[in-house]
Design goal:
The complex is a heterodimer of chains A (about 325) and B (about 325). In chain A, helix 12 links the parallel strand 9 and strand 10. Chain A is α/β, with parallel strands linked by helices and about 325 residues long. Chain B is of the alpha/beta class and about 325 residues long. In chain B, a hairpin with a 4-residue loop joins strand 2 and strand 3. Classes of the chains: A alpha/beta (about 325), B alpha/beta (about 325). At the A-B interface, helix 2, helix 12 and helix 13 of A face helix 3, strand 8 and helix 9 of B.
Chain lengths: ~325, ~325
Amino acid sequence: MSIKLGLPRALLYYEYMPLWKTFFESLGAQIVVSQKTNKSMFDQGAKYCVNEACLPLKIFHAHAASLREKADFIFIPRLRSIKRYEYICPKFTGLPDMIRSSIPDLPPIIDTEINLHKDKSKLMDAFFEAGSFFTADRGEIKSAYQKAVAEHKRYLAQMQKGSLVNDILERKETPQNGDLKIGVMGHMYNLYDEYANISVMKKLLQEKVKITTPEMISQEIIDKKAEQMPKKLFWSFARKLMGAAIYFTEKKNVDGVIYLMSFGCGIDSFIAELCERRLRKSGIPFCLLVLDEHSGQAGVNTRIEAFLDMLRWRRDDESYFSPYGKYLCLGKDPV
Amino acid sequence: MKRCFLGIDIGSVSSNFVAVDESLNVIDKIYLRTQGQPINVIKKGLSLIKNSLVDYKVSGVATTGSGRELASLVVGADTVKNEITAHAVAALKCCPDVRTVLEIGGQDSKIIILKDKIVYDFAMNTVCAAGTGSFLDRQAARLGIPIEEFGSYAVKSKNPVRIAGRCAVFAESDMIHKQQTGQCLEDIICGLCQALVRNYLNNIAKGKTLEEPIIFQGGVAANIGIVAAFEKELNAKLIVPEHYDVMGALGAAIISKGQYEKKGYTSFAGFDIINYSYSTKSFQCENCPNCCEVIELCSEGEVSARWGDRCGMHSQVRKKIDQAI
């Protein structure tokens, strides 16, 4: 009987799913992923979370709780830093403790610490620790690690080809046509959780929009662009988003940018503002959507529809100037 | 028979109906309170506006506002348009050179920046509804003043008090405190108007350059206290258009004319729908763990549309009906 390892489909799942899955499966574990976020799961699980937390964290609690009787272990790594001299949101550091203390009757949690702030070689130690739950053979762990890293690289390469994460994970094609190209920015767990973002991505695809996200830009470009900031951004995700925003302003390869922000997110609160200033300065329209627990789609739809109307209107009419230098309205209605 | 075009704006607080003729002159306008009953208000609005349209043939209908989807199903609209575009189109009609549109409605407040007659930028309030019509409504009711007279109290004030403008809940408790300490009503109301304007400019107009001409529209534009507070804060004159309270519906009517010119026919269901019985009911779908709240619209006892589901299982009913037609 293989050990069943539960992976909550939330937070960093979207960043590392192929890595984790390949690693643990190579060690003989059976992976149990929680369902896609849905209302009844959220209602049952989010109550365990402190009230002030952001929506993605509440969603994570719901996913962890839903794995209660389905797995022998739950994997919730304690992430402090995933890159040298960078940090990630402090809520990730406390995540395993938060889950352990607030949700009763959970299977044991594998809470390997990953802290690459000072030393990159610590990464292998972390994998040895996580792997030790399944085998004592360090050689086997090492080969599983190598397989996992190769899989992760493949995953990153697929993203950079322009596929949306959910389409990669579900082995579907991402539609590449559309008359508008929009940069959709935000944390991956907001972009790809349909429940959290009230189907924003689906709506954009329905409206015939080609979506581009920060994941589709290579790490080298992100690093280079983010260095243009007057001070080093030490939050990894902030750096990624800021680098993407600067890339858009320089390349001018998007018609507009939509930023999905979680209400109460510390990083989003200033990065959204910084991105907005940069993008506006270079003439790229910007639209901020704040996500919280509301399930009504009307407000989000109004903003998206108006934003797309504006982009199409601007594209079609903006460049009509008469040779006399005076603007001529062609009287086209934005219908 | 002359042609006319209908615009219907079903908002959270008010529902507006505007009919325009072929040269886009307003034939009639109706302003009603929605009171959470959009279907009844649509029927009532249509039955009222019908009387002034005896010489006209309705050649196009467009709906807007947060109830636009429901309204479009009931009346058979040609176009369903978001409020921002509708408001911008109407503002351009009233003042072709307009650069800034301030719009404060029941639950939303927005700013639209125009450049060369096209929408260049816009913003809407995010999670906060402070400074919108429904908050003013509530405060007027709490103070026992009809909302129509709210503004005239404000302009009488000599020494407006300072009220927290960040949040409606804080503003309310601040107001109660000031009342308890014996400040006079005019000063409190004026202080509230100033607080709301501050809130609007700091949240919604944040980082935007407000260039003249500035149009102020939406139901709250009737409030002379708010207008005065805006003018003082912006040091500019605001234009309140003649049909300020129904601008969304006016914009929709103009859009429906454009749509008619393209399409050549209308799918308007006719004024007979006033006599139809409509009912809505909602149920929770138990088919999957999403537990979507599905809404069902019945006309004359028959299901005519369902919506609200994520998977499309229920909303397909509408497609089948469309195909049958």
